[in-house]
Structures are given as C-alpha cells and as structure tokens.
Design brief:
Layout (H helix, E strand, L loop, with lengths): L1 H25 L18 H28 L2 H32 L9 H22 L4 H14 L2 H11 L19 H42 L5
Helix pairs in contact: 1-7, 2-3, 2-5, 2-7, 3-4, 3-7, 4-5, 4-6
Length: 234
C-alpha cells in the first residue's frame, strides 16, 4: 500500500509539473518587453521557482534524517536522509538547469560566479551529488553513515543563507517575486500557474521520498539477508 501511495504521488506530481510547463508556454501572460531582454525565456520561471521550493523541502528532510541518525540511530531517519539527498539532487539539478536557461537568455551568461545566491544553491546541489554518489560507492556502515549525516547536517546551513541572499546581496538573481505589498511582481494569472507548479513539485517530491525510503528499506533487508546467508551475522 505504501509503495502504491508513493507511486501515485509521483504520477500525480509528474502530470502536474508537465501541466505547469504547458501552461507556462501556452497560457501564462507575457511579461513586459521593456523589463526583460528575453521575455520568452521568463516562462522557465514557472518551473524554476517551484523546483527550488521543492529542493528546500528535500534539504529540510535531509537535515531531519541526518539529525535523526546521528542522535537517535534511527534506521527510519537514515532512510529519510537518503531520500532527502536523492530528492535534493533531482530538484537541485532542475533548478540549476532552468536557471542556466534563463541566465543564458536574459543575462548573456548561464552563471555568474559573483552572485551569492547562485553559488550557495550550487553548493547545495553539489552536496547532494556528493551524498548520493558517495553512498553508492561506499559500503554501508556506521562510520560511513556518520560521515554522510554530518555533511547533511552542517550543509543545511546553506539553506537559510541561500534564502536570504537575494535580500542582502542582490547582484544577478532577482529579488522576491512572490510576496505581499510592493515586493511581489506577479499578477493573478501568473500566480495561478506558479501555484500549480509549487503544489505539483511538492507532491512529486513527497512521492519521490516515500518511494526512495521504501527502496532503501528493501536494500537494507536484502543486505542483512545476504550477510546471514554468508555467515556474517545480523
């Protein structure tokens, strides 16, 4: 049943993010020609922002899972750590890719090494790359888990730092576009498409993590069974 819930959420989320992209390309209103160098490229915003939102959820799960393993030795929290790292990698790559598409069209360069927010989010994504590839290349054990959980715990510091970066160091990356008062810069139709995207990416990432936790649990059970068959104990 749990597998079916995760798979159902993945399917719903995938359909939602596909619908978001279609709405962004075919229905969402265009932005001002005077405000952007490449108004058409702005439509990637409806994937970029929800993907970044989902990435922060994933890195939050990574933090909780890392803390739960380090301080409680909880197998469930370790599975959450794994799921958060994998989900953070997926959504982080989508965010970076869509941002590079926007940057290449709007700024004339896909990346600006002087922009704090771009670099801190890039480091978050590289952290996820390290955790996912490191786990795949290292044997499972207490010391290995402690190392990866430590990186997941301290790496979370980059999340609030990334969030406030554009409010302190506005260089290339735009400031807040979803806010109350004069800070916000989107109209009702734009906000609707953005909401569809945010909900869809959230559902997708939850389904992704539920499925990942079940897969990790199955891997651990198979490993324990293999050890018993080889005479290595539990």
């Amino acid at each position: 049943m749990k597998v079916r819930v995760g798979e159902a959420l993945l399917l719903i989320g995938f359909l939602g993010i596909t619908s978001t992209l279609l709405l962004a390309l075919l229905w969402a209103p265009s932005v001002s020609l005077d405000a952007f160098e490449s108004p058409a490229a702005q439509r990637i915003f409806y994937w970029h922002v929800p993907a970044a939102w989902a990435a922060f959820i994933a890195f939050g799960a990574l933090f909780l899972g890392s803390a739960g393993w380090l301080f409680k030795r909880s197998e469930r929290m370790w599975r959450l750590h794994v799921a958060g790292a994998e989900a953070g990698l997926a959504t982080g790559l989508i965010t970076v890719w869509s941002g590079c598409v926007w940057g290449a069209a709007e700024w004339g360069t896909p990346w600006d090494w002087s922009d704090v927010r771009l670099n801190t989010f890039g480091l978050l994504t590289l952290l996820a790359v390290y955790l996912v590839l490191g786990r795949a290349s290292q044997p499972d054990g207490i010391e290995t888990r402690d190392t990866f959980a430590g990186f997941g715990l301290y790496g979370f510091v980059l999340v609030p730092f990334t969030y406030i970066a554009t409010r302190i160091w506005a260089i290339r990356h735009p400031g807040p576009v979803v806010a109350t008062g004069e800070e916000g810069s989107i109209n009702g139709d734009m906000g609707l498409v953005l909401l569809v995207g945010a909900v869809s990416f959230t559902v997708l990432i939850i389904g992704h993590m539920l499925t990942s936790m079940l897969i990790t649990n199955s891997e651990q059970r198979l490993l324990q069974l293999q050890r018993r068959m080889d005479g290595g104990g539990p």
